[in-house]
Every structure is written in structure tokens, then in C-alpha cells.
Design goal:
Elements: E1 4-5, E2 9-10, H1 12-17, E3 21-26, H2 32-35, E4 46-54, E5 60-73, E6 80-94, H3 97-102, E7 108-111, E8 118-119, H4 120-131, H5 166-175
Parallel strand pairs: 1-3, 6-7
Antiparallel strand pairs: 2-8, 3-4, 4-5, 5-6
Bound molecules: zinc ion (ZN).
Length: about 180
């Protein structure tokens, strides 16, 4: 089946009232900021699903997923390596600071422009950029850098005062 092209902009309130859903593509060439962060230009179009709806509180929202496969530069060996990037998003349009404060936490607020529209491609691109790993690295077993050189990455197990896992902190940061 031919995938549709995800519209560049959308009126989230109108689309919510029409309960529009899209299962389609955003051309890779549209995502110039995202492309700039990759090891190589990606020619794979982004697969996006997005649905517009009104929730039981009467809030118009749109939510969905985006995924693609890209190449990033490994920070350890400087070689490109493949990574699957996927993200989920849920936005609700807001028109004032107050709207934003009253918005349930499950949504991110997005301001509409003077035509009542949002830049869907831009939002999805922002989400993809946030979904990139903070530090791009091969899996240790796949990285050609000598294993001896990797011991710097080991966690100091000498102190057992804190059971805090540093990776959970990373996960928290990634969510922001
Ligand atoms: Zn590597």
C-alpha cells in the first residue's frame, strides 16, 4: 500500500473534531536539523503514525509515533554505526500561558500560529532529535576499539554507599 505523506502543518482542533489519523511518511529530506546530527545523510523516509482526537475531558490532542533507521558516529571509535530511532509523542494545542498550566501532564503543550495551525513536521523532528542517544556508541562487542581502552567506562564498585544507577539518571535526562 502506498503510504501517504504526513501533512506539513495541521489545525489540531479541526483535525481532532474530524478524528483524523495518518499513517504515512515524512520525507527524509525535510528533516534538515535532524540530518545534520547524523554520521551520514539518511535516505530513509520517516514512518509516522499520528491521530487527532478529543479526549474525555474535551481536550483536543494529537499523539503518535515516529521511527526511522539512521547512522550515528560512535564516540569511541569514530566510525558510523546503525541505530534505530523511535519516539512517541502526545501534544495538545494551547493558546495561552494559562492553558499550558492547566494542561494534564500526559500532553506537551504546543502553541498554534495565527492560523490555528502547528508545524507537524517541525514537532516530529524535535521529537526525533530528543530521541537520539546522549552519547552515541557501538555496543561494546561491536566496537573495534581495543577492549582495554574501554575500562574507563567501568563503574567504580568500591563505594556501596549509594545504590543509585548512573544510567537511571541518564534515562531521566533523556526524557526531558
Ligand atoms: Zn565504536
Amino acid at each position: 500500500m502506498q503510504k501517504v505523506r504526513i501533512p506539513v502543518t495541521a489545525d489540531p482542533v479541526k483535525s481532532a473534531n474530524k478524528k483524523q489519523t495518518f499513517d504515512g511518511l515524512v520525507p527524509a529530506t525535510r528533516l534538515t536539523r535532524f540530518q545534520g546530527m547524523l554520521a551520514e545523510t539518511s535516505h530513509q523516509d520517516l514512518e509516522v503514525e499520528v491521530k487527532f482526537a478529543v479526549d474525555e475531558q474535551g481536550i483536543s490532542y494529537f499523539s503518535g509515533t515516529a521511527k526511522t533507521a539512521v547512522k550515528l558516529t560512535c564516540q569511541r571509535c569514530n566510525q558510523p554505526f546503525p541505530v534505530d530511532i523511535s519516539t512517541r509523542f502526545a501534544y495538545a494545542p494551547v493558546s495561552s500561558e494559562q492553558d499550558l498550566e492547566e494542561l494534564p501532564e500526559r500532553y506537551e503543550g504546543v502553541e498554534v500560529n495565527e492560523f490555528g495551525e502547528v508545524n507537524l513536521h517541525g514537532l516530529i523532528e524535535d521529537e526525533l532529535i530528543l530521541a537520539l542517544p546522549l552519547v552515541a556508541r557501538h555496543e561494546p562487542k561491536d566496537c573495534p576499539v581495543d577492549r582495554d581502552a574501554m575500562t574507563w567506562g567501568e563503574i567504580d564498585e568500591g563505594s556501596d554507599e549509594s545504590s543509585e544507577n548512573p544510567f537511571s539518571v541518564l534515562q531521566e535526562l533523556k526524557r526531558k
